[in-house]
Structure prediction request, 867 residues.
Amino acid sequence: MQNLLILLSFALFTFGSYAYFNKPLEEPSWPTTIPGFAFSPYHYDQSPFSGIYPTTESIEKDLEILSGMVHAIRTYSATGVFGEIPELAAKHNINLALGAWIDGDFETNEQELKALEEIVHRPPYNVVRAIVGNEAVLRKEISVDQMSAYLERMQKALDVPVSTAEPWHVWMKYPELAEHADYLAVHMLPFWEGVPVESAVDYIVDKMALLSENFPNKPIVIAEVGWPSNGRSIKEASASNANEAIFLRRFLDKARTEGYVYYVMEAFDQPWKADLEGAVGAYWGVYDVNRQPKFEFYKPIIPIKEWRILAIASILLAVFLVLFLLMDSRNLKKRGRTFLVAIAFFASSVIIWVVYQHTLLYQDWISRMVGLLLMLGVMGVWLVILVEAHEWAEALWLRKHRRLLLPSSLPETTSTSRDWPFISVHVPAYNEPPDMMIETLDALSRLDYPSFEVLVIDNNTQNENVWRPVQQHCKKLGTRFRFFHVSPLEGFKAGALNFALKHTHTEAEAIAVIDSDYQVESDWLKRLVVHFDEPEVAIVQAPQDYRDFNENAFKAMCYAEYKGFFHIGMVTRNERNAIIQHGTMTLVRRKVLQEVGGWGETTITEDAELGLKIFEHGYQATYESTSYGRGVMPDTFMDYKKQRYRWAYGAMQIMREHAGALFLNQTHLNLGQRYHFIAGWLPWIADGFNFIFTLLAIIWSLLMISNPIHFNAPNIMISLVPILFFGFKLLKMLALYLTRMHASFVTATGAAVAGLALSHTIAKAVLSGLFIGRKVPFLRTPKGRQSAAILQALKDAGQETALVTILASLVLVIYWRVGFESLETLFWCIVLGVQMMPYLAAVILSTISAFPSVSARWLRFNSVTTG
Prediction:
């Protein structure tokens, strides 16, 4: 019932918000008739660039639409089918301001002028004025002197007023041009000048007054006046259906009182003009390309006529998302459920709005395909945000943990009457420093546990001086410790563990695994083995932890990043019996390990794959968030990247091999387990596709720079998605570290930088694992290496450095070449900045790793509380 009330509240809020922002706007009514329309009769698939022109029949149908609502039309060419327009217009009592197209092609200019002269001199004599050229001087295709000569020539040849059409500022800049014109044909398009719609009509009045003052003896005709309904913004001018309606209805009312002669720009949308003016050029029509009116002429203006449909669609999509997010929410506090419902409604509103905006665009098959991919990308991003939000809610607002056992709630481990099972501890090693291995074995020898053995499996180490001291030390520790040096041995770490399984003591009931660098605490086995009292439990897992995190700032930042997974992610996953088995500090019931076929040698993350196989067979796992052993961390940024590459690549191998179990439920996996495995890997998959987005963003930015008119920045709502995605993930991480893990802001920031620094590495691993699928060698994380020098550190982040340089350069060049007059361009550059952050984080972290003397004191962790 409480969930229903929360859902209903947000549904009402969503509908009310749509209603509020779409309140009817009272504006002056459209006049019964207006002086004129700019008239280009091209339809959707027609363009002067393709040589496909309107037919006589289609032009006549267009004129029929305008019949009775306009006194005259303005045309732009006098040749070809356009020369037939005067005769067709006369049937509907429409006069013409007949245009001749003038550009740098003087031969074509002659054809246009001759056609103009011929048409004016022949019936039906409905040409009331001639316009020689349209912004030809503005485009600098001909000079003022050349245009003046054309005007003088046509003044002598024609008996109607002659002028050329230019924006108001061109007439002001070249007053001598007016001396050769019978009137001023002026373009008043305040949108192009970045004037907000609220001030646009007053702006025109001011400019008309300015022209009248400077040219007192010249009649002024507004040859183009209008506002686009879609496309990029310019400064404070925003293109929208509502703004077009508001501007035109206000202007027409003002023009009536001022007595202006004008031609509304324009009658019908012209998609082909996007090649000249960018996307906005296609949307200046009062009617769309299908000849349907784009707004109300007489009734109050509603910004989005379809707002009710959009509101209902947003609510329905949100309800679907909420049902998914709250499927297992009985243990979630009210504020957690409210948070998830809010995120779902916000996500649905953005998705519906992006889809709606996309439907308003004129598209060819290429743009439709790009649009489809774009929609899929937007929905994919929001899917990841919803998954992240779910983890956020469950990390902060659970009433209590259903499955997490804290040390205080564990069964008694000191009882002498307990029948302790025999444990076989396996320590795989390859080319590990012998001193480090000896410390690991000494810690195992101090275990407070009555019945265990230790098997050390050194596989394929070639240098005898590396493995021989370890073998000798095992002999010193007694019969519990057995050492195996095997070369050759296939299967990397999994091969070594399967070899150990074959040589395990026959009485062993559980297998424990630690990495070769781990020093365990004496009560490790006693603390964990008690979980096997539950017969369905097959895995007991404790966190990875590290003892050298305070050596320097680099390791402290990496340590902070690791902590998030082990003390937030794993705790959340444990609620639904879906933990990731991560190899070290793990215990596995032997008979189950043998039942599922041992350690898998087809992936490079055999530990996680084994855990999933055990879940597929219907067994349980237990996660205890207390650390019982600590290893050593990667010493350099390159080692840190290699480790994460292995994890991410291995995860994709597992996803491919277990797709049937994860997506088709072909095993005993329950819904919660499948959700956590898929959802847990989604952020990594998102990194992979985000890298593709970065490459596409670079290509698009280069196109914007090379041809800023044709290639505009994407819609703001599109740009907002990656910005919101980055901001949400960063905010989530900071919030959970500050509240859930009691870390300082500096520590949380260090963890964020370390996590971001791995994005490029994860992206490459994911894309390779998903689409290439070749088996890569097991990437061992070296221990005890000296930190890299500064040049080596920068080389370790070479790809990331190159991408930072490219993205930063693109922002600067776009600002220089295009400018930030358009909000879309500004937001696009913010997107490029956001895309740059992970690569910049990699450069920063790699540089820090080159200075091992930088203290870790400022990043030191407070105690972590899991409950």
